[in-house]
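Hi support team,

I've been running sequence recovery on a batch of backbones for a student project. Most finish fine, but this one hangs at about 90% for roughly twenty minutes before it completes. I'm not sure whether the input is malformed or the queue is just slow. I've pasted the structure tokens below so you can try to reproduce it. Let me know if you need the job ID as well.

Thanks,
M.K.
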């Protein structure tokens, strides 16, 4: 093996900016976070806690930081594009540790709020100030989400981000419902060459009634007419999305595909601040579940929440970050850049490699 090391931060400072783009075909306006390789003049601004970007995920949440320099000058040149889709009731900055890692290695990364299905929308629904019909909501989300992702690709290629995007090097990733969005977008958009679903929805889940889960599954053809490199990353003890559902999706996905299961991990090991995200859901899960499910789903989910491990009994968040950043970068390098060292990295025994780093995984 060469000195290729996808676990290490890249050679460029990571910049970030926020925009709003409106899709005129749908009259739909989306907030979009854009990460990109920044000019050398911003060296270390992204990693300095005193200078890096800070934001509030929701108005009532405490301020947090991301490893990126706000509105930094971008690095000239053409960049591969990765679109990222957040989970059900998430928001565009839920996994900044991965998005900034990609940017530091020369990628443009764009993540949109799926308006109507964000954390603020779900909080409103839980408090009774929004629509609480989960089936009606889900049908709308199934239509909106892949269209949102393709719209972001359209806008990026049209130069709306003030970045030069290579149209032949486009990937997509997402977590949970964003993982489903990743797969569904690839069904519909032949521009996508690389796919990284993280704990994807689409199999049977206690969060939705069986009929609705079937609609999600039926909306995935997973029979692509173009070659797409796919890497599934999932969690062993996923409370929200049972592992067997992801295995079924994986088996339906066309080759070339790989899949790895992070052992002793739960659904929120794919987000920033793993322990805090996990503990928050463990505390608020019953209220949020009531807003997100039918009565039968609520009963099933309540039982699963009782058996949810505490964050102290799960693998540490740092292991999840390393797992996600290292494999997420190597997969995109191998697929979008045809990087020979990255291809060799992905072809080796990844279970042993990660085990040597203290990270326990198994093949999906």
């Amino acid at each position: 093996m060469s000195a290729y090391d996808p676990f290490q931060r890249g050679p460029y400072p990571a910049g970030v900016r926020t925009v709003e783009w409106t899709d005129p075909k749908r009259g739909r306006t989306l907030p979009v976070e854009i990460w990109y390789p920044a000019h050398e003049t911003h060296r270390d601004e992204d990693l300095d806690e005193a200078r890096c970007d800070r934001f509030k995920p929701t108005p009532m949440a405490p301020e947090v930081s991301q490893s990126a320099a706000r509105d930094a000058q971008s690095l000239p040149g053409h960049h591969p594009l990765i679109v990222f889709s957040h989970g059900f009731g998430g928001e565009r900055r839920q996994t900044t540790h991965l998005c900034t890692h990609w940017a530091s290695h020369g990628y443009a990364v764009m993540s949109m709020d799926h308006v109507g299905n964000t954390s603020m929308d779900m909080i409103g629904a839980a408090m009774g100030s929004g629509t609480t019909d989960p089936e009606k909501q889900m049908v709308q989300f199934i239509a909106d989400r892949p269209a949102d992702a393709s719209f972001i690709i359209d806008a990026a290629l049209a130069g709306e981000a003030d970045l030069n995007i290579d149209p032949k090097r486009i990937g997509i990733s997402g977590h949970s419902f964003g993982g489903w969005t990743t797969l569904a977008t690839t069904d519909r958009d032949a521009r996508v060459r690389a796919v990284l679903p993280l704990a994807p929805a689409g199999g049977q889940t206690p969060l939705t009634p069986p009929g609705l889960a079937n609609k999600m599954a039926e909306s995935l053809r997973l029979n692509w007419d173009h070659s797409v490199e796919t890497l599934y990353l999932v969690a062993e003890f996923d409370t929200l999305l049972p592992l067997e559902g992801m295995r079924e999706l994986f088996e339906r996905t066309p080759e070339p595909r790989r899949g790895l299961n992070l052992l002793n991990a739960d659904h929120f090991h794919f987000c920033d601040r793993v322990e805090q995200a996990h503990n928050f859901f463990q505390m608020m899960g019953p209220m949020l579940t009531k807003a997100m499910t039918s009565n039968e789903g609520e009963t099933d989910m309540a039982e699963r929440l009782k058996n949810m491990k505490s964050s102290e009994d799960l693998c540490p968040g740092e292991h999840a970050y390393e797992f996600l950043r290292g494999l997420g970068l190597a997969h995109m390098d191998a697929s979008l850049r045809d990087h020979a060292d990255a291809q060799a990295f992905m072809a080796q025994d990844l279970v042993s490699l990660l085990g040597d780093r203290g990270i326990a995984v198994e093949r999906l």
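--
Follow-up from support: It reproduced on our side and the slowdown came from queue contention, not your input. The first helix runs from residue 96 to 104. No action needed from you.
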